[in-house]
């Protein structure tokens, strides 16, 4: 199988980028597609390349400053993605802020997993959610770091080892093309099995049928939901996952989960130096291995998700 080229390599060409944007605009019946694609092509390339530099430096940097660089890298890439659906971005100053806020932290007893982000009415986060992913977010809604991390396939192992729990169920692909999950894995779902399937059906982007046996549930997708949605998550090796219980249904596409996590960590780096320094040097809590594992995951998963989004 041919390897998919990296979006950071392809979008070094302004001429290719211009034709890419024009096709995007034409599919959305945007007026003056050619003119707007020409106008945005270099801005798009700059977003991609500056984001690439931030991300590359973040990957090489030590943990104390890594989140800031990764966050700015991802932010630039997402701004480029916005130009594919909104040729006038940024049309107002309302979309320039982060779109998230963090609560005031207490110096004593603070735990990263219990920390929250609050969704704001304006800013990049809600604008991305609505324009790029067609999901309306409610201002004032909160998400904990625990919820966000439990919703990432690549974080399941470390969360299971350290916290004795998982947030996602692995949907195992069978030889007949169906997916299976054991009833034991579904034991944390609050309600009958039919309600779990019904929840997935709403977000399957196609037909979903199911069969129940003594020990497992078998699912058939037509087609398989290969694109990440609000319910399904796909790992970098294309394994499929779904929420284990309702508390981990967070109504966020995975790219926005990474944006929120990196935003929170970057804010800690910049404004909570005492707690951040103590965490890194004391090795006294589960927060450190979870954060460092997440940073490793994000370095692979964010470019992988963007590659799927762009190409």
From TrEMBL:
One Pfam annotation, family name?
YaaC
InterPro entries cross-referenced by the UniProt entry: YaaC-like
Protein name stated in the entry: YaaC-like Protein
UniProt organism field: Salipaludibacillus keqinensis
Lineage, highest ranks first: Bacteria, Bacillati, Bacillota, Bacilli, Bacillales
């Amino acid at each position: 199988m041919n390897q998919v080229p990296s979006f950071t390599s392809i979008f070094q060409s302004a001429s290719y980028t211009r034709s890419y944007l024009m096709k995007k605009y034409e599919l959305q019946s945007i007026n003056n597609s050619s003119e707007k694609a020409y106008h945005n092509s270099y801005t798009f390339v700059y977003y991609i390349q500056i984001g690439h530099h931030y991300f590359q430096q973040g990957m090489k940097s030590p943990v104390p400053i890594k989140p800031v660089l990764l966050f700015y890298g991802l932010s630039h890439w997402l701004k480029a993605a916005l130009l594919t659906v909104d040729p006038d971005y940024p049309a107002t100053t309302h979309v320039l802020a982060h779109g998230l806020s963090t609560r005031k932290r207490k110096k004593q007893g603070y735990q990263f997993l219990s920390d929250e982000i609050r969704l704001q009415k304006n800013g990049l986060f809600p604008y991305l959610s609505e324009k790029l992913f067609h999901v309306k977010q409610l201002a004032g809604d909160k998400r904990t770091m625990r919820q966000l991390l439990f919703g990432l396939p690549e974080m399941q192992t470390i969360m299971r080892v350290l916290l004795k729990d998982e947030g996602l169920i692995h949907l195992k692909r069978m030889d007949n093309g169906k997916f299976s999950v054991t009833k034991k894995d579904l034991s944390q779902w609050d309600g009958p099995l039919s309600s779990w399937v019904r929840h997935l059906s709403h977000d399957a982007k196609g037909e979903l049928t199911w069969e129940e046996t003594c020990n497992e549930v078998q699912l058939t997708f037509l087609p398989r939901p290969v694109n990440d949605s609000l319910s399904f998550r796909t790992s970098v090796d294309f394994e499929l996952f779904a929420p284990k219980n309702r508390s981990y249904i967070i109504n966020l596409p995975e790219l926005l989960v990474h944006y929120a996590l990196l935003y929170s960590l970057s804010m800690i780096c910049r404004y909570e130096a005492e707690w951040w320094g103590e965490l890194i040097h004391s090795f006294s809590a589960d927060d450190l291995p979870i954060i460092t594992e997440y940073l490793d995951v994000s370095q692979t998963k964010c470019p992988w998700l963007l590659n799927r989004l762009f190409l």
